[in-house]
Design brief:
- This protein is mainly alpha-helical and 554 residues long.
- The protein is built from 24 helices and eleven strands.
- The protein has a three-stranded antiparallel sheet with strand order 9-10-11. The protein has a two-stranded parallel ribbon with strand order 1-2.
- A hairpin with a 2-residue loop joins strand 4 and strand 5.
- Helix 22 runs antiparallel to helix 23 and helix 22 packs across helix 24.
- The chain is globular.
- About 12% of the residues have low confidence.
Length: 554
């Protein structure tokens, strides 16, 4: 049942709702038939019948029965008249569909309560809906893609901000790629075999489109999953669209949409090279500027990606504030005003999370808030972190491309570390979130890690609710404290004040570290300058700064 729910929803957004949760509970109790009650108690017969039938059609592998058979039977009749606008003469079932250029699939016998349903009955027309005949309307695949793009622009348009959502921009980009990779064939030619061939093209991980001179690379398994998922959602939309005669094949959901992993990807996962190791985290914090360090801490502390950092609001930061008493009780976690938290709703799953903060994260957010209060519009619902120009971190470029401010900042930090002669795994910013989840799992278990990462899929002690107070965040806080202890070597790479700027770019961090070491050894400024190849004035300046930062005795 969860596979069906997950397959119907956009990537990563599947959730249990009240209806599916109730169905799941009945199945868990061993029911062979799922009983559905009118909602509300006085639900109209037509509404009740239609709703039950939609649920039955969605979960065709289960058996649903109405608790109020009389209301359901009345609703079936009313619904047949209201929805199909037919006059009940002779055989309305055959008469109506004959006029509307469709054919009826062979109807099945079914029992609803004590009522036996046979061919031609109104109940039969609901249980065994006829299939519309797919005719050739002369329209093509690319025309359908373009119509789907128009629908996305309407469906995901925010009237308040007069902008499209980030999700819409992503979908539009994927549709452009689908148009680029698939020929513009007549829709009438797209049957089960053709769709299987389209899915197979992506499942085999085609080569990326690269600029001249660049080495060709295969698409990542993650990217392929997104393209296959969007293509599947497109076909479902096309099937429902009244503007196209195309209808999806009956067994379309049986087509394999999985993405096999290549040998190298499996090896990387075994070697855990998709997460940063402790010594690499030390390097990142040692070389980071205050802004880079802020991103680093939010990634490690809260599992934040670029979107979560960019959309974190002023009102979601709670510095030196204990959890409310009711949350302490529900979480099973004692909290004082020495604790600090951030709260947010993760865009991908719309699940609410609240995170206990590391000491270093608190200092960096204090610095951010002090600066933010001097910038424009510091109201609670506004972003807490702006760029150096006072603009949002997720603001799109002039040509509409997604913002790369945070990933680019992290890439510059990575380059500085390598340019100074260090070795570090080349991983993008998003892998800090993976690293954080891996650390939480190491100091707790997979369930707690899933709650930490705000995954939308169910967990054992979860009530399958969006509300974070029903998720075991107390266990998450215990794990965060253990992770903080483990990361002490990382925090020590920054001074007591992690907001102090790093040395100027033309003096490498290794040279500054060497100055500190030789000063502690009692070497003179002249000896240090000769050893590192810098002027005595430069050495003097860095010794003074190291003393100001508390890294050298005065």
């Amino acid at each position: 049942m969860w596979e069906k729910i997950d397959g119907d929803a956009p990537e990563g957004t599947a959730l249990w709702d009240e209806v599916t949760l109730e169905i799941g509970k009945q199945l868990a109790r061993g029911a062979d038939k799922v009983h559905l009650v009118p909602v509300p108690d006085d639900e109209a017969p037509t509404s009740y019948a239609t709703r039950l039938q939609r649920i039955q059609n969605r979960f065709s592998f289960l058996r649903f029965v109405p608790t109020d058979e009389k209301r359901y039977t009345i609703g079936i009749g009313d619904n047949a008249i209201d929805m199909r606008q037919v006059v009940l003469v002779d055989n309305p079932y055959e008469d109506y569909w004959r006029k509307h250029d469709v054919f009826a699939a062979p109807p099945l016998k079914a029992n609803i309560g004590d009522v036996t349903v046979g061919k031609g009955d109104l109940l039969d027309s609901m249980i065994n809906p006829p299939y519309r005949r797919m005719t050739d309307d002369g329209k093509t695949l690319h025309q359908a893609f373009e119509a789907y793009e128009d629908w996305i622009k309407q469906h995901y348009f925010d009237d308040e901000t007069q902008t499209l959502s980030e999700y819409a921009h992503t979908k539009l980009g994927q549709i452009d790629s689908l148009k680029d990779r698939h020929e513009d064939v007549p829709l009438a030619e797209i049957d089960y075999d053709y769709i299987e061939k389209m899915y197979r093209f992506w499942r085999q991980r085609p080569m990326k489109r690269t600029k001249k001179g660049q080495n060709e690379q295969r698409m990542s398994a993650s990217s392929v999953r997104h393209y296959v998922g969007e293509l599947h959602r497109f076909f479902k939309w096309l099937h429902r669209s009244k503007d196209f005669a195309w209808r999806k094949p009956e067994d379309i959901d049986d087509i394999d949409r999985s993405t096999p992993l290549d040998t190298e990807t499996v090896k990387k996962r075994i070697r855990k090279v998709d997460t940063f190791q402790l010594d690499e985290l030390c390097l990142l914090n040692r070389y980071a500027t205050p802004t880079e360090r802020l991103y680093l801490m939010l990634g490690l502390n809260c599992g934040f990606g670029t979107k979560e950092i960019a959309t974190l609001t002023i009102g979601e930061i709670f510095l030196h504030q204990a959890l409310p008493a009711d949350e302490q009780e529900v979480f099973g976690f004692h909290s004082t005003d020495d604790d600090s938290f951030v709260s947010l709703v993760r865009n991908k799953t719309t699940i609410v999370g609240k995170y206990l903060l590391f000491g270093q994260t608190v200092k960096l957010l204090e610095w951010v808030m002090a600066r933010r209060l001097k910038q424009r519009n510091p109201s609670p619902d506004q972003p807490a972190i702006l760029n150096s120009k006072g603009m949002p971190l997720d603001q799109r470029s002039a040509n509409g491309n997604p913002s790369r401010q945070i990933p680019n900042t992290f890439s510059r930090l990575h380059k500085r570390i390598i340019d100074d002669g260090n070795e570090i795994t080349k991983l993008p910013f998003k892998h800090l979130r993976k690293t954080a989840g891996d650390l939480i799992r190491r100091f707790s278990d997979g369930e707690v890690a899933g709650v930490f990462l705000l995954h939308g899929s169910p967990v054992t002690t979860d009530k399958l609710s969006d509300v974070y107070t029903n998720r075991p965040f107390g266990k998450v806080y215990d794990a965060i404290r253990r992770v903080e202890e483990y990361l002490q070597p990382v925090f020590e790479e920054a001074s007591d004040d992690p907001t102090l700027e790093q040395p100027q770019a033309y003096t490498s961090r290794k040279s500054v570290d060497r100055i500190a070491e030789m000063t502690k050894e009692g070497k003179t400024v002249r000896e240090i300058a000769e050893a590192i190849g810098k002027s005595r004035m430069t050495v003097h300046r860095h010794i003074q700064k190291l003393r100001e930062r508390g890294l050298l005795d005065a």
